[in-house]
Every structure is written in structure tokens, then in C-alpha cells.
Design a protein that fits this description.
The chain has 185 residues and is mostly beta strands. It has helices at 2-8, 180-184, and strands spanning 12-14, 28-35, 41-49, 55-62, 72-73, 77-78, 83-91, 98-109, 112-117, 121-124, 159-160, 169-170. The radius of gyration is 37 Å and the shape is rod-shaped. The chain starts with a helix and ends with a helix.
């Protein structure tokens, strides 16, 4: 298990080096997978090994690949144990967005705080989850059409309007034409 954790931890240490803390070496911060990814939330997972007393962890995430702009840090949580699997639910994410994230381990030794970053990982949030319901249409037709008597004046056509639809239509009426034979009667 210890070798697997070391292989997973491709993170970098900031502040360690020749002056490593006296607790026995650099802790291991391994960024795991993002699970339960939805349109606006995800669960970030990781493992911290070789944690000394006073070690805290948190996650850093951002839609910016360099993780400098838009960076959000979860609250730092103390560790209780030397090998700990950690998880944090993050929400209020943007739909259809790639987020970059990593685990950050904070080790306090004396008056100094050392930072160990896990490997940077990414996930993509899903599409927005709005229910799509088709619009309800109500159709009402008004007006009547009557044929005019032969030789009578023609009234304007009655209007036909559809309510709730994007367009309205009007009807046309035709006037019967009188032939010379019909007038001779």
C-alpha cells in the first residue's frame, strides 16, 4: 500500500529540500479522482500519507489551467492519522466547464508552514439540468363566413385569429361574378 501511494503522488513539495521537517520526511499528497460530477458539483478525492501532527489538507480548484485566476480553496482540515483518504464535496460550479484541481497538504513545523501539492487533475462538469417542457398552446377561432346574395355588396372578410400561436391568419372572401345571361333575367 505504501509503495502504491508513493507512485500515485506525483506532486511537488514547496518549502522542503535540505531543511525537511524533523518528523521524518516529506508527506505524500496524492490527488485521486473526481467522482459524482454533475452540472454544478463534484466530489474531490485524495490520499495523504506520512502526515505528522499539525498536518492539514484542503483542495484547490479553478477553471484556469494554471490555477492562478479563479482559484478556490476549500477550508483546511486537520488530519488524524498517518495515512488518510480525504474527500470534499464542492458545489456552485459552472456547467460545461473543465476544472483543474489538486490536493494541498499544509505541514506546520516550528514557526514555518510547508506546502505539498498533489498532482493536478481535471474533470468536466455536465450540461445544465433544467427540465424541458413543451409550451402549451390554446387555439380559438372566431368569426363566421356567409356567402353574399347575387348582386349584393360584399362585406369585408371575417378575421380568423389563433391565440397562443406565433402568427395570426386572415381569411379571404370571393365575390360571385354576374354573367350577362344572369343579368338579363
Amino acid at each position: 500500500m505504501q509503495r502504491r501511494l508513493i507512485a500515485l503522488a506525483a506532486g511537488t513539495a514547496v518549502g522542503f529540500g535540505a531543511a525537511a521537517p524533523a518528523f521524518g520526511g516529506q508527506p505524500i499528497a496524492a490527488s485521486g479522482d473526481a467522482t459524482s460530477v454533475s452540472a454544478t458539483a463534484a466530489d474531490l478525492n485524495g490520499v495523504v500519507a506520512r502526515a505528522a501532527p499539525g498536518t492539514r489538507w484542503r483542495f484547490a480548484y479553478s477553471p484556469n489551467a494554471r490555477m492562478r485566476r479563479g482559484l478556490t480553496l476549500t477550508p483546511a482540515v486537520p488530519l488524524h492519522g498517518r495515512v488518510v483518504a480525504v474527500e470534499r464535496h464542492v458545489s456552485y460550479l459552472r456547467p460545461h466547464t473543465r476544472y483543474f484541481w489538486r490536493i494541498v497538504v499544509l505541514v506546520t513545523a516550528g514557526h514555518r508552514t510547508y506546502v505539498v501539492d498533489g498532482a493536478r487533475r481535471s474533470f468536466v462538469t455536465g450540461p445544465p439540468t433544467r427540465p424541458v417542457t413543451p409550451p402549451t398552446r390554446t387555439t380559438t377561432t372566431t368569426g363566421t363566413t356567409t356567402a353574399p346574395a347575387p348582386g349584393a355588396a360584399t362585406a369585408p372578410p371575417a378575421a380568423s385569429t389563433t391565440t397562443g400561436a406565433p402568427t395570426a391568419t386572415t381569411g379571404t372572401a370571393t365575390t360571385p361574378t354576374a354573367t350577362p345571361a344572369a343579368l338579363a333575367r
